[in-house]
Inverse folding.
């Protein structure tokens, strides 16, 4: 009876571990794989030690434990990568004049337009480019908010939402091309 109980616990641990690894590979939501990863690791460890004590096979519980640890590692990597990306978009600079703020906004605008053009021409269509593009877009949005707070005038001949929409459409097309 205990061998059947250990085997059932090993199966449950393996199912939870596989669920964790599947979630871990989903972009942006992979960080949530830490929950099934931890649960799978705990269940796998319990099943392993119970199997070892009763002399039952330990292979399935070890596999569940390893898969859970991999899911936790991938989720941890995604968490630290994403949090680093968010931190790097913070505008720590304290602006004392509108001229300073407008100069930075114009610089980001030019960088964003250059990157969007390269992506549109097909020269630079990869995950890193998309990440940098979105990072620059977030910086510009934050600068626009600061400009509004300070009462600064920014050029009106630039529509950030229109550029972002174009890149999102390109991203969808890239996804279709990859399939």
């Amino acid at each position: 009876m205990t061998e059947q109980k250990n085997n059932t616990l090993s199966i449950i641990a393996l199912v939870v571990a596989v669920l964790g690894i599947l979630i871990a590979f989903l972009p942006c939501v992979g960080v949530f794989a830490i929950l099934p990863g931890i649960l799978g690791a705990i269940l796998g460890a319990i099943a392993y030690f119970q199997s070892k004590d009763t002399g039952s096979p330990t292979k399935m519980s070890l596999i569940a434990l390893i898969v859970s640890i991999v899911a936790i590692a991938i989720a941890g990597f995604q968490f630290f990568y994403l949090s680093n990306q968010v931190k790097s978009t913070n505008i720590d600079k304290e602006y004392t004049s509108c001229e300073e703020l407008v100069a930075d906004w114009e610089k980001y605008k030019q960088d964003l337009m250059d990157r969007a053009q390269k992506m549109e021409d097909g020269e630079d269509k990869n995950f890193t480019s998309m990440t940098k593009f979105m990072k620059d877009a977030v910086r510009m949005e934050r600068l626009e908010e600061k400009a509004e707070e300070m009462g600064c005038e920014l050029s009106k001949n630039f529509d950030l939402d229109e550029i972002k929409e174009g890149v999102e459409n390109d991203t969808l097309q890239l996804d279709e091309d990859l399939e």
